[in-house]
Amino acid sequence: MRNTTIPVVLLRAVRHGGVCIVRSLGRFGAPVFVVDSSRWSPAAVSRYCRGHFHWDLETSPAGESVNFLLDVRKKIGPKPILIPTTDAAALFVAKHTVALRDAYLFPDQSPETAFALANKDSMFHLARRCGVPTPDTFFPKSRADVLSFLETATPPLMLKALDYNLLHRRCSAEGKQIANSRSEVLAHYDLMQDPEQPNLILQEYVPGGDDTVWMFNGYFNRDSKCLFGMTGRKLRQSPVYTGSTCLGVCLQNDQVLASVLHFMKAVSYRGILDIGYRYDARDGQYKVLDVNPRIGSTFRLFAGNDDMDVARALYLDLTGQTVPPSSPRYGRKWIVEDSDVVSSIRYFRAGKLTFRDWLRSFQGIQETAFLSLGDPAPVAAVALSDMRELAVRIFARRRGVSASTVHATGLPSPPASSAD
Question: Among 12, 48, 7, which Cα is nearest to 375's?
Fold first, then answer.
């Protein structure tokens, strides 16, 4: 009989990723707690959330965050499983493994491996050493480096941040931008780069639509054996062309699967993995784009015939229970409702999506990110969040400032009414 008495602590609970984890493990029978700066995040208001601990991991000193987590552990009983849900949270746990090990259960991952895979510079070189194809990538340290690179490079090129936290603190640009000309490369670079702390890479843009972007989600045990893993494809992204999955389908891809298993075995990876590939029709290769050494927000796309997923596989393995074999449900679709609406409009405007194709794309959807008749509060939370975001963007457009500036300073208070 399955034992689900061990509690789970989510470190950060961002949008749909957090609520999907809370629901999956809550329905599995496990008590789930959330550590996050927002009391009104969709995960925190879910009926499956047993408790919320208010803490801002990104802005708090590391030592204080460690002490806070140690205090949380004392308040919830048995030694819990700790699941970081963002890159920053995953690297925090990796860095402070020794301090957290006695208080929490989590995969015995090498901190060096976690940092090497999360950083696009080291991941690129690690993949090349392991014989895993990846797009050609350049790591400029200055604008002069970019100018020199552009003398021989041929656009289009992708500009990406090495550290997304550093990028968003500086400007409102998205973490990825496609540049189709030399002038666009320089314009994006000037907007996104911080000269005092270089944080951008220039990557060969692999041509093709969203249907060339493939994903793998899986769980690897302490011997780097994949106990659960599936592949799938992006159908629509948010933001369009460069973002995360807002509509995806679970499909078989043996080449991607073989590449992932080889790569992770070579680096002795342990734990949940979320990794992205892109098919390059020019040479027939699947090239690794990004590696997330943590649970990904799209993980519920990859639910097996017994509803097994990576969060449940991790739970069973870390509590000494057997992870049962699970068959993929190929053709299963999963959607992030609000993000897909926005992206669909943009695909329409760009001539990349017809109304008929849009309607047909919903066939096969078996699960949504937010909507759940048995757990309605997260839908209300995200609706309020979306309305506030819309208000911020409208205000920013009218005032001619960036949305990030409004987020940083807050929406202004209404003017005081006159005495009469």
Answer: 48
| pLDDT greater than 60 at residue 258 | yes
pLDDT for 273 beyond 80: yes
CATH 3.40.50.20 in the chain, residues? Answer: 8-106
Average pLDDT, the chain: 90
pTM of the model: 0.89
Fold classification of 136-204 (topology level): Dna Ligase; domain 1 (3.30.1490)
- What confidence score (pLDDT) does residue 44 get? 95
- Amino acid 163: pLDDT: 64
Residue 416 predicted with pLDDT over 80: no
CATH class of 8-106: alpha beta
Backbone angles phi, psi at 38, to 5 degrees: -105, 120
27-62 core/surface letters (b: 16 or more CB in 10 A; e: else): ebebbbbbbbebeebbbbbbebbbebbebebeeeee
**pLDDT value of residue 174:** 54
Fold of 210-368: D-amino Acid Aminotransferase; Chain A, domain 1 (3.30.470)
Looking at residue 402, its pLDDT comes to 52
CATH 3.30.1490 in the chain: give the residue spans. Answer: 136-204
pLDDT at 173 over 90: no
User: What's the mean pLDDT in 346-365?
Assistant: 95
